[in-house]
Amino acid sequence: MSLDRPIPRPLLSDEVFHRLRDSIVRGELVAGEKVKDGELAVRLGLSRTPVREALVRLAEIGLVEAKPGAYTRITTLNRRDVEKTLAVLRSLDRLAIETAVPVMTDQDLERMREANRDFERAVAADDTTAALAADDRFHAVPIAAADNPVLSRIVEQLHPQIHRILYRKFSTLLGGRNTIEHHDQLIDVCAGGDARAAAELSGRHWSERGGHINELFDTDQFTESAIA
């Protein structure tokens, strides 16, 4: 497991944060699992301080929950929290695209096309990690073009919550032609310069994804036994 590799001394807290975050997203650290800073520090070959700092940051973005003196554990996948996160991400993505389209360059559009080609190859190879990375690169283009640091920071904080679900149910939520075709359509609308239409198209896609996620909750596919 990637958690067991020693971490170089520089930027320890950031590295621990990213490694633990990715382990939670991939399900290596399971929803509801209790974690102890001392045990994690031993596995990572570190002192407790950077591990504690990383756990605090993970709690701030909702991946870890703690009750002082009782436990620190990986948060469970909660429908209400997921719905709220999706609603915020949908609004932020619409804002980013509507702001970005008037200033997007040919280079921006080509980066989106390249990311979607990478996404399509990852889907064909059933490579969930590569597909999610390509999907992130795709959506990062308009977010960067919007040039709003606050928006970028909030999106970065919220993404891991949704990635936990996308990673577990990739084939249902991202793996079909629908997302590839949506990406192509969005690129075309952005290239045409219609910011409002592009934002509406993106919003519909987020709503569709939210509907699929709700169906998975309805069928109890995010219980601890289902993702252990």
Automatic annotation (TrEMBL):
Q: Which InterPro entries match?
A: GntR_C, TF_FadR/GntR_C, Tscrpt_reg_HTH_GntR, WH-like_DNA-bd_sf, WH_DNA-bd_sf
Indicate whether Transferase appears among the record's keywords: no
User: Which molecular-function annotations from GO does this UniProt entry contain?
Assistant: DNA binding; DNA-binding transcription factor activity
- What range(s) does the HTH gntR-type domain occupy? 10-77
Source domain of life is Bacteria
CDD domains attached here? WHTH_GntR (cd07377)
Pfam families found in the cross-reference section: FCD, GntR
User: Keywords for this entry?
Assistant: DNA-binding, Transcription, Transcription regulation
> SUPFAM superfamilies from the entry?
GntR ligand-binding domain-like, Winged helix' DNA-binding domain
Q: What is this protein called?
A: DNA-binding transcriptional regulator, GntR family
Q: Which organism is it from?
A: Nonomuraea solani
Q: What is the lineage of its organism?
A: Bacteria, Bacillati, Actinomycetota, Actinomycetes, Streptosporangiales
